[in-house]
Structures are given as structure tokens and as C-alpha cells.
Amino acid sequence: MNERSLHDDATAASGTTATPAGAGATVRLTTAQALVRYLAAQRVATEDGSSVEPLFGGVFAIFGHGNVAGLGEALYQHRDALPTLRAHNEQAMAHSAIAFAKAHFRRRMMAVTTSIGPGATNLLTAAALAHVNRLPVLLLPGDIFVSRAPDPVLQQLEDFGDGGVSANDAFKPLSRYFDRIVHPAQLLSALPRAIRVLTDAALCGPVTLALPQDVQAQAWDFPADFFAPRVVRPYAPAPRVDDIDAACARLAAAKRPLIVAGGGVLYSRAADALQRFAAAHGVPVAETQAGKSSLAWNDPLNAGALGVTGSPAANALAHDADCVLAIGTRLQDFTTGSNTLFTQADVIAINANGFDALKHRGFVVQADARLALAALSGPLQGWHTERAWTARAHKLAAGWRDTVGTLTHAPQRDAVLPYEGDVIGAVQRSAPHSATDDIVVCAAGTLPADLHKLWRAGRPGAYHVEYGYSCMGYEIAGGLGVKLARPEREVIVLLGDGSYLMMNSEIASSVMLGLKLIVVVLDNRGFGCINRLQQACGGAPFNNLLDDCAHGPEGVPRVDFAAHARALGAQAEHARNLAELEAALQRARAATHTYVISIDTDPARSTDDGGWWWEVAVPEVSSREAVRAARAQYDAQLAARGEAPATAHAPAHAPAPAPAPAAKPGPHD
């Protein structure tokens, strides 16, 4: 459909007439019709730059009171230009939309619309997730009547001290831009601002436009040229010359530099530039969770994952580095080992967002990763780090690759339950030639730690783990969004039983939409990861594994995940061991629609290699000796970081922080 016919169809469908084309031409539309038509007109260059395609891949919608009459009718009119996809849970569909944008490296995105009340507030967790991960999503929750004629309307939250507040005000701290549309004309400024935030590397994150239901239905004469097709050019800041000069001087003086590759490398499409820069100057590279797949797993300078869930190779190099070039990372505590991993290093932080670069006392270069690497390459031409440092990096990286091969190909004994590393190995062995084309999706529990260390990502985007917010329930919904963005790729969702039980409804959505996923459920009978953290902090096993929870006289349930998945429309089976898992994976790869495989796993095991200390506060006072001992160790770590021990029993001269078994935040599997 061309843009002229889109204009004509919208006018005819709305039962309105437009003034003649030209200067001052107008078209009468409702607020909802205008909003949808504007979104449908936005374009962006394709990945190869040869043409343009819609900026918005579509709108996920669950209709209800507050959006079905106004926005629902508008979406119906434009369903060919802006597809509407129905989901089963508001939070989940927002996760899918966010994953779609992440899989497109923020070049394309989606919108999400809900009713007022619980439909809207179900989006809050997803809004926070998008904010923390700097990912674009347009949230369009229904809102109460501006007229207040039916006040209070069904599902309205009344603030006793402010009559203008609705439940949607909860989105304000969770949005990079928030607006409540109280008159149709407001769209003329609100929509361009929304698009700018969604496509600006320095501002990127969730945008919320709250839509009062009476305003959605209100008509106004909009300027016709407001709906002309527009090619959006995402904004990324170029570096300042003086910042590049200073960064070059710091790098040239370094003898043992390390590059930390974050998500910004992928979002700026700087993977090739990163590989060339590292190879030209002999600088090893370590990857964050968001940055993993920036460099091919078998690149000789790829030392692997960094930090609390890091490889021994990357962490050893980080501990000894005298300069860290942090590219596109906000240096979160899992990356820095709660600010103990590379305290000795001079940190140069390159980030499109200046706030994100202002971490770890680093020198800030506010710039797009690709543009910054290009700017650094000229002045540093001919510079090479110490040959011994590069040789050490090669040796450590090669040794870690060998270890990964051993860990993921360990022989399985029938009497021993497999653990995450075993399952990861089975998944990668099941690929026809290699796992290069697979995209793994995960979010929470032990799996992100083992995936960060063990998954072999052969190309940018092959590793899709949401770990900024580490949100249980993201996995299956996220996999749906990834498949929507990359339908030609095999999308493998790995998750624990806890995450599956928390949010599994989008299995039915994937079946309905014909978007095939392979879902592998690791059933360790509870929240195994947080159970280990609980005990590492001296706590007794309590309320995490199902056997340690309160339960009735009939005991805890034994969930048949395969039967449940079949009830949602998927093909499914339970694998009793790794051999059966590998055979089931072959059937899943050959299947034409979503296939779920469950397997029992060990809640106590994880990959011991690597890791680093992560700060989790331990109670100062407890009647349990195990807690008091854990507190003493915690105080020793604080003292090593330069903080005075909070309790008298901490040693006067604590040892330097040492690698510790990785632990993950939140109530994870």
C-alpha cells in the first residue's frame, strides 16, 4: 500500500473529509486514529541501508475498557500498515516488544497498548526492564476520562490528595519520556518527542503516552503533512576531539590495557570495528552480559565473560590491567565485582549516554561506540600494547576455550542429575553444524551465569540474555519478540521451572502467531540459584526449593511441564537424561511450531570456574553461627575495598578480594 492510498483509506474509514492537499491542508481524525497513522508513517533504513522499512514492527494489544473503542478502532483501520498482535499477558507482551527492539539492536521497535487499571499497571515491570536496559518501547496505556463526567470510572485509582492523578502516574519514574494526552493537538509535539527519545542513543528507553479514553475518541483537524512518511535517522553522538586526544594519550601510556565490551557495541553495530581495533593493537576483550557476542567466541583475543559471572581468563586480565577501555557499558556491579575487580586500572568509559559513562571514576568519552573506535584508530595507528600482555591474553583465552569444551562435553552418569552446563552443551551439540545461527534467550537464575561463561556466540546478537533487570518471566515472552524480529533463526529459550511457572502464557501466543520457539525447561524443583546464595550468606535453606517451603498435608506438587505446554498448544516432551534431551532437541529443530522440552536438573551445582566477589549484605547480628561466619567474611571483603569493617570481629588486614562462586540477584530459579 503506498502512502497516498494509506491517506485515502484512513480518511474514508473514519468517515471524515480532508481539505485539498497543499499548504494548510488538514484531515479530521480522532486522537487514536492520528496516533496510529503517525506511527504507521515512520520509516527507518534497512540493515544493509539499501531501502527503508517501517520503524514500528507492529502493536501488541490486549483490549479492554479504556482502549478497545478508541485505539482498537484505529488499529483496525490500519491493520495492514501497522499489524496488531494479540497476547495473553500485558507484562509479557511488553517483554516481547522490548526483545524485538533488542534483537534489532534498537533500530526497530514496537508499541504496546492496554486498558486502564490492571492492564496498564501490568506494564510497570516491563517499563522498568526497558529503562534499566536502555531499550525502546512505546507504551500506550488507556487512562481515565479527562472530562471526569463518570468519575470514578471502573478501575480508576483515586488519589485523596490530587484529583489529577491516575494509576498511570506510576509510569513517570519508569519512563524516559512521559506524557498524558489531554487534547488531540498535543500529539503534534508529543509524538515527535517520543520518536526522538526512542531513537536517540543517549536518551533511549521506554516512552509512555497515557491515553484518556474520551480524548482517544475526540476528533480534530490535523495538518495533513503531519502524516507524511518520514525516514527516521537514529541519533548517536560523535566524540569530541579533545576527549579522543585525552583517551589516546591514556591508552598509549598503558602497558596492560583491556577492552570491556558492553551492549553499546552491539547497538551501535560496532562489532567489526571492535574486532579490528583489538587485533590491530593487541588488546584483549572481555564481554559483559549485554555485550556478549560483540566478538566471536573463538576470536584469539576474546577472553570471555567478565565479572561475577565471568571467566577466569577475563577476570585475571581485568585484575592485572592498568587501563580499562569500557565501551558501551554502564559498569554495573556484576561487571565490576562490586567495584573490586579493576580498581587499580585507569578507566576510559565510552558511552552514548554520559550518565552511564560516569561510573567507576572513569574518564568519560560521550560518544557512539562505532564513531569513537573510528576516531581512536587514526591517532593510535602503529601503537601496540606490550607483546607479552597480548601473548598472555592469547594463552588465557585459548585455555578457557578448551575448558569450556570440557565443561560442556562432560560425560553424564545416569545416577547424577545434569546441571546447566550440561544442558548448554547438549543444546549446542544439537545444532546441525554449529550454534552460530542459534539465538539463545534467557533472563534469570543460574542459567545467565553459566550461559555467560559457556555459550559460544558466533555472531552479534546470538546471545540474548536480559540481565540488567534480571527479570523472571521475561524468557518465553522475550523469545517470542526475538523470533518476531529474526524469523529465519532458531530461537532457543532456556529457563528454570520457577520462571516458567511465573510466566508461560506466551507459549500460546507463539503457537497462535506461528512463531516457533524451542523452549528448554530446567526443573530443579524451586529457586536453586537463590537457595545457594541464601546458604552462602549463612542462611538456612528456606522458602526457595519446594521441599523447603510451607506446604499442606499432601506435600508439594510435581509439575508436568510437558503436559502443561501441550495444553497451551505446543509440542512437548520430558527428557529423562542428556541423551534423551539431545534426541528431543533434534525433533524440536525439525518441528514446525513451538516445542517444549523439560529435564530434571541439580539445584546445587553450577560452573565453579571463574566468578568474582559480589556484595550481598549479611546481617550484623544473628543467633546462627553460619550467619556470623558469613558476616566476618563480608567484613573482610569490605575492608579490602577500603571500607572500615562494621563489626569488631573483622580482621585488621583483610586479604584482597578473591573470586567467589557467582550469585545472582533477585528471587531466581
Can you give a write-up of this model?
By secondary structure, this protein is α/β, with parallel strands linked by helices. The protein has 3 domains: 3-231, 3-Layer(aba) Sandwich (Rossmann fold), CATH 3.40.50; 241-400, TPP-binding domain (Rossmann fold), CATH 3.40.50.1220; 413-600, 3-Layer(aba) Sandwich (Rossmann fold), CATH 3.40.50. Helices cover 36% and strands 16% of the residues. It contains 25 helices and 23 strands. Helix 18 links the parallel strand 18 and strand 19 (463-465). Helix 11 (271-281) packs parallel to helix 15 and helix 17 (420-429) packs across helix 24. The model is unreliable at 1-18 and 647-669 (pLDDT under 50).
- The third-level CATH topology of the largest domain is Rossmann fold
Strand fraction: 15-25%
Using DSSP, what is the number of strands?
23
Q: State Rg.
A: 26 Å
Mean pLDDT: 92
Structural class estimated from helices and strands? alpha/beta
* Domains (count): 3
CATH architecture of the largest domain: 3-Layer(aba) Sandwich
Shape: globular
Treating each run of at least 4 consecutive H or I residues as one helix, how many helices? Answer: 25
Terminal Cα separation, in Å?
47 Å
Helix content: 25-40%
CATH class label of the largest domain? Alpha Beta
CATH superfamily of the largest domain: Thiamin diphosphate (ThDP)-binding fold, Pyr/PP domains
Please describe the biggest sheet, giving its number of strands, its sense, and whether it closes into a barrel.
Answer: 6 strands, parallel
Work out the oligomeric state of the chains in this entry: single chain
Spatial order of the strands in the main sheet?
A: 5-4-6-7-9-8
Poorly predicted ranges: 1-18, 647-669
